[in-house]
Each structure stands twice: as structure tokens, then as C-alpha cells.
Amino acid sequence: QVQLVQSGAEVKKPGASVQVSCKASGYTFTDYYLHWVRQAPGQGLEWMGWINPKSGGPNYDQKFQGRVTMTRDTSITTAYMVLSSLTSDDTAVYYCARDRRPYYDTNGRDALDVWGQGTLVTVSS
Amino acid sequence: DIQMTQSPSSLSASVGDRVTITCRASQSINSYLNWYQQKPGKAPKLLIYAASSLESGVPSRFSGSGSGTDFTLTISSLQPEDFATYSCQQSYSLPFTFGQGTRLEIK
């Protein structure tokens, strides 16, 4: 079955960086964009960006430009998100999610149909 | 960025009730609107995409409508498992922004 499995919880100090991984299985990894979404405690969902697994090209929300890097390794069907210069405001659950529209479906509509289980990142001194 | 505003922020209802949640975009997004359900401690689940298309496996009591700037999610007859938080998301233009969520509670 289609599945995204994320890496485990992290505790980081302010100013540090964190890497979250997202292992995909059950589908052709390079056909579907992967999004990263976060959710601070008690807050709503916040879209961070996406990566095209075929080309490796990312697109980041301006809010995170300069601090976030999204990459992928097609040989192990895994995507990565690195967030740097962490502050307490970055404490959140981070999700990866697959876009339901394959990259070649130019008429389709984007939506996030398969989600990872989430990774809690806690930033605390 | 396109701002998405949901109303109400929270809602109390009973099993069997018909419930409607509204999502408004700060500019026209055609029908590029998705709805998600999220239960505590769990990842969101896609319910509706493209404003009115039901995701596979989602019960038919869920429906979506709207176009342009105003959208609704309707649950025709609430079931116990429907008590959760519902969020809309626009996929018209990057960044793909979400609404703040509507918490549906048991009355």
C-alpha cells in the first residue's frame, strides 16, 4: 500500500538545524510531488513547500526561504527536509504528504492524499 | 499569498445533525479547494478535492460545494467518528495555504 514513513522525534537547541526524512513506498516515487506541512501545538496546518522528486526541484514558502532545504534520494525513495536556525517558534509536528496529482497530469488538481505519521520537533534550550 | 478563512472556528453538534462549515478565500481560487479531517494526534486525511470531488473511501455523507471565493463542507448526518477538526486548503497558487481549522465537538 502507498505509505510515507517519517523519522523519529527530535529535540534541538535554538540555532541548531534539524533533518526530517520521509520514506515512500507502494508507488512510483518520482511521479508525485511531496509536500512538507507543519503544525505548531494547538495551531493550524502550515504549508512549507514541495519538492519534485523527478527533477529534485523544490518550491518553498517565502516565509521559510533561506532556512529550509528540501531534497530527495531517488535510489532509496526518500525525501528530506532540513530546517536551520531553529527557534522555539519552530516547535511543531512536521508532516510530509504526497500530492495526488502525478507530475504529468497537467489538468489534475493538487491535493495531499497520503500523509506521513508526523515528526515532532521540539526546540528548547 | 491567498488567505483562507474558515467559520465557525468551533462548532458543537449532535449525532445525526447536518453540519456545514464555510471557507472563504481572499481572492478567487476557481474550484481549487480541498478539505481535510484531522483527529487528535493523527495526520490529516483528505476528504474532498477540487471543491466537490469525494476522495476514494470517504463516506458519501461528506460533500463539498462552492467556487470562486466561497466554499462549504457539509456532513449530512453526523456520526460519532466525525468529531474532529476540519481544514480547508487552496491549491490555486503557491503557497498552498490552509484555513485555521474548525473544531467540531459533541454537544
Labels describing this entry:
heterodimer, A: 125 residues, mainly beta, 7-stranded mixed beta sheet, 11 strands, B: 107 residues, 6-stranded mixed beta sheet, 10 strands, 0% helix
Number of helices of chain A: 0
- The end-to-end distance of chain B, rounded to whole angstroms, is 36 Å
β-strand number of chain A = 11
Return residue spans of chain B where pLDDT drops below 50 for at least 5 consecutive residues: none
Strand order of the largest sheet of chain B: 2-10-9-4-5-6
Strand content of chain A: over 45%
Give the SSE order of chain B as H and E letters: EEEEEEEEEE
Shape of chain A: globular
DSSP helix fraction of chain B = under 10%
Please provide the count of β strands of chain B: 10
| Protein structure class of chain B | mainly beta
Shape of chain B: globular
Radius of gyration of chain A: 14 Å
- Please give the largest β-sheet of chain B: 6 strands, mixed
Describe the protein.
The complex is a heterodimer of chains A (125) and B (107). Chain A has strands at 3-6, 10-12, 18-25, 32-39, 45-51, 58-60, 68-73, 78-83, 92-102, 112-115, 119-123. Chain A is globular, with a radius of gyration of 14 Å. In chain A, the strands form two sheets. In chain A, strands 2, 4, 5, 6, 9, 10 and 11 form a seven-stranded mixed β-sheet that branches. Chain A has a four-stranded antiparallel β-sheet with strand order 1-3-8-7, with no helix packed on it. Chain A is mainly beta and 125 residues long. Chain A starts with a strand and ends with a strand. Helices cover 0% and strands 52% of the residues of chain A. Chain B is mostly beta strands and 107 residues long. In chain B, the strands form two sheets. Chain B has a six-stranded mixed β-sheet with strand order 2-10-9-4-5-6, with no helix packed on it. Chain B has a four-stranded antiparallel β-sheet with strand order 1-3-8-7, with no helix packed on it. Chain B is globular. The termini of chain B are far apart. In chain B, 35% of the residues are buried. The chains are: A mainly beta (125), B mainly beta (107). The A-B interface holds A 35, 37, 44-47, 49, 59, 61-63, 95, 97, 100, 109-113, 115-118 and B 1, 31-32, 34, 36, 38, 43-46, 49-50, 53, 55, 87, 89, 91, 94-101.
